């Protein structure tokens, strides 16, 4: 029976989907690791797990499409109006909604600036939308001239700031130049997933000035709620209204809404501030320690909750860490990131374990070479 079923799948499968490769998420890459792994430092998750209360009284009812308690709380947090906000299943869904709403399959294109977050390209490919590229400069700043050359050729311009995986923030003057250049032709999508680590560079308070920007946010990083899958798109009302036409009728489960509202309350925001402070302090200590290794060179900047570095012993170091229960992320396939690894800032205990294993690796390498 398997063969006829496979033939049917081959016959019906969307031609655009056949050649696609799924996004290599942290969990997919190490799906068999299970609980044996001691330190997950490869997905830019928070090491903290916070407690929340759940009320099951409404579990028998379909949830609100846009839960008012979540919308109003996040609008207050971001300093915007409630009609300038949409909550979705993670910022990843926000990416897809923007592409579906503003790009015609087989006709339109988006622009990305690699090295950057992989889901912009994956979502575009899945929707049969073209992908143009304007790679970042050697210092990971925007190549503004290259970006501006795509005016009239793309409907969306994706810019990640702070950028994953380089940890760099986009210069505000550069970004303003891009926004104004595409004012009458494209929406500039500013991905602020890591903005809690670089709050002074947010564009949220400038939404009213620029009708062609959309901002992506998430609770997955600094809020320590990656398992919740809750993200936000911030934009002027006409963009939000367009996204409402393509979003699923019940995107936010009731338990998710309850937890998100608590995370955005007074106590939740106090916890956020305290934990971001801890992570920033740990990040500074990690950077200092990594710089002491001769074969490690820090790459990019530290405006997020991760550190990117380059080492000629990338593969061997990665294998050593995995073998000893520490998972980090290989970024060497991305443009201009040869031999680069990315470390998520973990708990003090995890960071200590990481540095201990890196030190042990280089000590073993030296011993082998001397022998």
Mean pLDDT over the full residue set: 93
Shape: globular
Distance between the termini: 59 Å
Task: Tell me what portion of residues adopts beta-strand conformation.
Answer: 5-15%
Question: What is the structural class?
Answer: alpha/beta
For the sheet with most strands, the description reads: 7 strands, mixed
Number of helices: 13
Arrangement of strands in the largest sheet: 2-8-7-6-5-3-4
SSE string, helices as H and strands as E: HHHEHEHEHEHEHEEEHHHEEHEEEH
Range of helix content: 25-40%
Can you describe this structure?
This protein has 371 residues and is of the alpha/beta class. It has 13 helices and 13 strands. It has helices spanning 2-12, 15-18, 26-29, 68-78, 90-102, 119-126, 144-148, 172-181, 237-244, 254-263, 266-290, 314-323, 348-370, and strands spanning 39-40, 85-88, 109-112, 130-133, 156-160, 187-191, 213-218, 231-235, 297-299, 306-310, 326-327, 329-330, 340-344. The protein has a seven-stranded mixed sheet, sandwiched between helices. Helix 4 (68-78) runs parallel beside helix 10 and helix 5 (90-102) crosses helix 6.
What labels describe this entry?
single chain; 371 residues; four-stranded antiparallel sheet; 13 helices; 14% strand
Q: Mind sketching the topology for me?
A:
Layout: H1 2-12, H2 15-18, H3 26-29, E1 39-40, H4 68-78, E2 85-88, H5 90-102, E3 109-112, H6 119-126, E4 130-133, H7 144-148, E5 156-160, H8 172-181, E6 187-191, E7 213-218, E8 231-235, H9 237-244, H10 254-263, H11 266-290, E9 297-299, E10 306-310, H12 314-323, E11 326-327, E12 329-330, E13 340-344, H13 348-370
Parallel strand pairs: 1-11, 3-4, 3-5, 5-6, 6-7
Antiparallel strand pairs: 2-8, 7-8, 9-10, 10-13, 12-13
Helix pairs in contact: 4-10, 5-6
